[in-house]
């Protein structure tokens, strides 16, 4: 019952840019299966109502379909693809951006002992579970408020807090709770992730990033791998190649210049690693991206 109404609400309120009248709430609709595409995950709750989605993070693969949810507690480089999309039956999904300050506020209000104790080490940055009925019910009630502008300003923040509480106390609560803990292992890794993302074009020493994150080198390696499914150097390479692909979409004729801008001094190494990652050399992939963009013009996402 929840899924049927969820599909109806999502289909009715989807916009071309996937935003809604409720801050932090997103609705996705995909009408055709597209090739896997790289992106950043964001810190988000995602619930699938129709179709399915597959995400790759490092050497990990996540798949979730109707009635399941995914939580991402760190903004990570992923490769995603909607699947099980058929004519007349698009993929439909709900998204809610997760704010560390909102998690911290709920944990403070709940007090000690209200939630399970965190285990040792950092949990994975992405996790998938079946959505319990109480969580789906809250998501549906939040989306109903899109039809009730008078009530939306007052009730939407309350329902969003309820959804967050269901996550905090649910199966993937350890992942979500650490978002709100300033001294958690996940928070330390998040600090390193942000630094690498902001300085992806620079050479760095892992020992320096570990020290900046407030961890020993051994703890940093262990927790970074647990959260991101990659080593710090692999993570940097992933960010570099994603940024290069974005730049090539607008500068397709400057492969060497793009390589330098993202941190590759050796053009041959850049082309080799780009081809290994995306399945085509930079110049050919740039042309393919332009053709895809032209063919998709005017089509809703």
From TrEMBL:
Q: What are the residue boundaries of the HTH araC/xylS-type domain, all occurrences included?
A: 190-288
Q: Which UniProt keywords apply?
A: DNA-binding, Transcription, Transcription regulation
Q: Does the keyword Transcription apply?
A: yes
- Annotated stretches, region: Disordered: 273-301
Entry keyword Transcription? yes
The cross-references to InterPro entries, in alphabetical order and at most eight, read: Homeodomain-like_sf, HTH_AraC, HTH_AraC-typ_CS, Tscrpt_reg_HTH_AraC_N
- The superkingdom of the source organism is Bacteria
Checking Gene3D superfamilies in the record gives: Homeodomain-like
Question: Pfam families per the record?
Answer: AraC_N, HTH_18
Report what the protein is called.
AraC family transcriptional regulator
Q: Which organism is it from?
A: Streptomyces broussonetiae
Q: What is the lineage of its organism?
A: Bacteria, Bacillati, Actinomycetota, Actinomycetes, Kitasatosporales
